[in-house]
Design brief:
The protein has 269 residues and is of the alpha/beta class. The chain has helices spanning 48-60, 71-75, 103-116, 120-130, 158-169, 191-202, 217-222, 233-236, 252-268; strands spanning 3-7, 32-38, 41-47, 62-65, 86-89, 94-97, 100-101, 136-142, 146-151, 173-178, 181-186, 206-210, 225-228, 244-246. The chain has a 5-stranded parallel beta sheet, with helices on both faces.
Length: 269
């Protein structure tokens, strides 16, 4: 039976220039492969070693990119190895099969959101009313499913984030601060629900996962084994669980280590 590997992408497998954490001497820095270009500029990277590991992983497991990115944002990533049959976008709101949205899955997600949490318009209005132009740079709606803000992190008051979290909690939403982005996401919109569906379709008996943010916690808990890097919200909160390994590596080298663990786990599985 196949092994399924569900992994977050940004700051887990792929890294922006600002998130690379190249703390070694320049002459010892790893060779990097650009895996995303946006508006003619290189945007995301992994090490060349990680690229080979990901290619090898495609031969031993069902690899499922599992991201909060919109479909458009995901589709500009050019990962090494064979194109994944399944991909999860918009934090579970869209399940792609051979690159196309599974409409039945999306309809089931919309029905659950309508039944279980406050509407997006209410959350959007609250964000618009309470965010301070002093630190707010952009406000975006993703796939008509959730909202996020791009902020100046140094100017962002911690208290505002806490108050937003409490407000959202009472309306069935959750808040996650990742780098310069604040996400407001409906609680039923989860990566784990979409992964369970892919596990069912693929007939997988072993699931491996990795992620760095609070939005990845449910994904990690849904897996038989999981890994988190030494950076990110989960590391900052010292979050763990019995089947989770907290890695010491930070930045792009953490992505390489995670892929080594995936490959080892899928071969043993």
């Amino acid at each position: 039976m196949p092994v399924l590997v569900a992994s977050d992408l940004d700051r887990t497998l792929i890294y922006s220039a600002a998130a690379l954490s190249l703390t070694m001497p320049d002459a010892r820095a790893p060779r990097l492969l650009c895996v995303e270009v946006h508006e003619a500029r290189p945007l995301s990277f992994m090490t060349e070693t990680a690229a080979q590991l990901l290619t090898d992983l495609g031969d031993t497991a069902v690899f499922v990119p599992t991201t909060t990115r919109t479909r458009k944002q995901y589709q500009r990533i050019n990962l090494p190895g064979p194109p994944p049959k399944y991909a999860i976008c918009a934090n579970g709101g869209h399940l792609l099969v051979d690159g196309a949205t599974d409409q039945d899955w999306h309809a089931s997600v919309l029905a659950r959101l309508a039944a279980e949490c406050a509407p997006l318009a209410e959350v959007q209005e609250h964000l618009t009313r309470t965010a301070d132009p002093l630190w707010l740079r952009k406000q975006r709606i993703a796939e008509d499913l959730f909202a996020y803000l791009v902020v100046e992190r140094e100017l962002l008051p911690e208290e505002w984030v806490k108050e937003l979290g409490a407000w959202a909690e009472n309306r069935g939403w959750t808040v996650s601060l990742q780098g310069r982005k604040i996400y407001a996401v409906p609680k039923p919109l989860t990566k784990s629900a979409a992964v369970h569906e892919v596990v069912r379709r693929a007939g997988a008996e072993l699931t491996l996962a990795a992620g760095d943010s609070l939005l990845d916690a449910d994904l990690l808990l849904a897996a038989d084994r999981g890994w988190r890097p030494g950076h990110g919200e989960l590391a900052d909160a010292a979050w763990t669980a019995p089947q989770i390994t907290a890695l010491p590596e930070r930045g792009v080298l953490a992505g390489e280590r995670i892929l080594r663990e995936f490959l080892k786990g899928s071969r043993l599985g």
